[in-house]
Structure prediction request, 641 residues.
Amino acid sequence: MILTPSNLVNNDGLFHLRLYVENKHYWIKSVDVVHLQGESGQLNTKIDYWDNFPLSLGNLPEATEKDTVYFPRTLSIDSLSHDYSTIAIDENNAIWVFVTAGNKQGSPIKGWVNTATDAQEHIKRVTPWHWSGFNTIEDKASVGEVSKKLAAILDVGDCTETMLALLRIFKQSSINILPPEQFPEGTKNDIEILSLLLQNKLRHPFSIEQYKDALRTSWTAEQIGHLLLKYESEWYADDALSKWNEIDNLFEDEKQQKKKALEEDLQKAGIIKPHERNYALEKMEESHEIVKSNWQIEKEQRIKPSLWWKKVAELQAQEAQTTNDNQTNSTNTPQLTNLSTDGKAWFIHPVAMVNCLFAEEIDIIVFYIYWDGRIQKYIPSFIKDENKNKYRYVIVDAQGAKHKICDLEFFKIKEKVKKTFIPNETKYYFTTNESGDIASDVNDGDTKYRIIYANGDIAEWGLHSGYSGNNKNKPNSWRVVSSTNNEVDLLRMPDSINEQYGNFHIEYSFHNSQRRYANPSLFAAMLGSLAVYSKSVITTGSAFQWGSCFPSALHINGMAIDFEYRSRSSPGVYCPHSSQQYQDDSEFLNAMLLFFDKVRVGQDAHFAEFRQRSRVVNGGTLHDSHFHADFSLSKIEEIKE
Prediction:
């Protein structure tokens, strides 16, 4: 953003930006004034400015492996042009773009690049039809061969071309990163190293976890989407279903593996009597025969009726021959593009292509929630009347596909600020003062009594666990919040969501809480965290509809939200760090840190490793029972059409 010189005048803590014409230009961060939306207004903090454009390619520090882009990125300048936080234009009208990419270790790095021609050797501007980074793979392995290979951890030489391509991409995912000293010795090939690492972790190289992790990282997701594969279509087979029959031969191998594993389990369990062992093995045999029978039904009743490719290819070939024989083909008659008679064709990921071809008409304010933690609030030039009090929430997954989650109504309240806290007092310590004051008994979790004052202040009384034991005769406490003249948005969160969207899942529910209102931007961060995590969570809420949040003082105006730990089995008792529950908590914490400003965890030793992570703080014993996620509106990139 280019501005003429300015004076900053301090008046009771407010700074006024005064502009006047002069030949000299100054630069400021557009994010500091983006809330003004191009209109006149006041700044509430002092902002920095530069006499010269602050970005330069001169005097760059020496490049290191950790701050060098290793994986190529392709970004649309047009799609970023409305995003003031990612675009800057210097005095020569050169466009600078703020990008996130991956270094050689697979870790995200961020920085500015100059898109002017030849400004930076590794930066190139290309047309939207430039197919950068696409890889072609011709895989000749049959269905039976692939099925057999997927059932085992492979040596590099046993992988198909597609498997090798995926392993190279998986290697860049953060889940596979280990310190160099932990890499097995005597290996030079990167794929061989990855294969050994996976074996050491007892993990399958082509597990769903591997795919999920790769899709969570933008540069690895882009590479998966750019794979062009040539293989025999699933909709093609000969009349005997030869390629599908190859799988039949795998059942006996699978049975022998299961039999061996079962015999070992029986031995460990001390089941040595012949009749008991034979009974278990017979049941396994029966179960296996049912699976084999179901597979035969699958082939005859589902696969065989779906094999349309061969018939259509033959009909197209006949029609093309007839047209040539009759010599009736006109230059104005479009030619059929015949399917290959062997069922082989090139396949491309369709989602990104569809997104490019079809523009979206938007008549509602939309929160676009990106897989890498960005949240954009898009404000169109035209909003339908019925949408003027609504927000739409859209998840943009790692491959760029958009998934509408919901439309929610919002409303405005007077901003609340902390006023006072009175522990261990009776119900009638505070009373109504004016005719417009409303007092009532309530049953909102720990909140038992509430006074709504005519001036907008809220006084709430109930059980505060941190103080309830201080005075057994007066276990309840008061918290009061006052209102300012500012307005803030709130919305009521859905009571629950449990939906599958493409390759991710969003599932949450409330427990023991009526604090079901939140700032609309915080709800966007919550949805993003749940999408990346893709497992169910339980929330104990954010704020009440007035912006208050008893017993907490940290959730005012719906700017924070709590989630129960999976690894807490009872007060003071936690699952071991080797448990799946602890791993789930760790994964959810990482997901929240993408979207939230900071996360508070308990002070118990159970959370020691969590507290070592950036932006994770010790929340004291109060947070030994739940995650507390704080949100900041600075996370929102506002785009106004």
